[in-house]
Amino acid sequence: MYQTILYPTDGSEGAEAVVDHVRELAAAFDATVHVLYVIDARSANYGLGGAFLTDEGSGVRADPGPDDDSGMVGEGSDAEATRSALAERGKEIVEAAAASLGDGEAPPETVTAVETGTPHSAILEYATENDVDLVVMGTHGRTGVERYLLGSVAEKVVRLSDAPVVTVRADENE
User: Fold this and answer.
1) Is the CATH number of domain 4-42+84-169 3.40.50.2000?
2) Beta strands 4-8 and 134-139: pairing type?
3) Where are the domains of the chain?
């Protein structure tokens, strides 16, 4: 029934709460698990939206200074270093998540991937491109104004996914 399970993770506690569910579902259906991390292209630290990278603490400022010849993000080595660092962090997260799935008797076959984009869109696109049968993901448990302002990746995936989606809420007391 479920041959391919997608486990999107951001390395948070909410995402880690999903591991046992993914492991059990993969074992029950002898499924391959795809572990996915999405670099959020909307993040100012990624340098989109006309921001310019700097060497200062925040790494970003709204516009270049008069002596700045680095150009817009994407043109200089600072931008490449930022992209590379984010990709490396994503790789570490998916590898750790895949390793945590192997804690059982018969670890599932895993595939790891790091993509860039708007998180919910990248998850949905990955699911379509890889013929995913089931998405299992954590939620952060936001409610009220915070959820309205920040949105919910899990909620958007639930609403828009062609594949069934199982969501697991992290226990806030753990």
Assistant:
1) no
2) parallel
3) 4-42+84-169
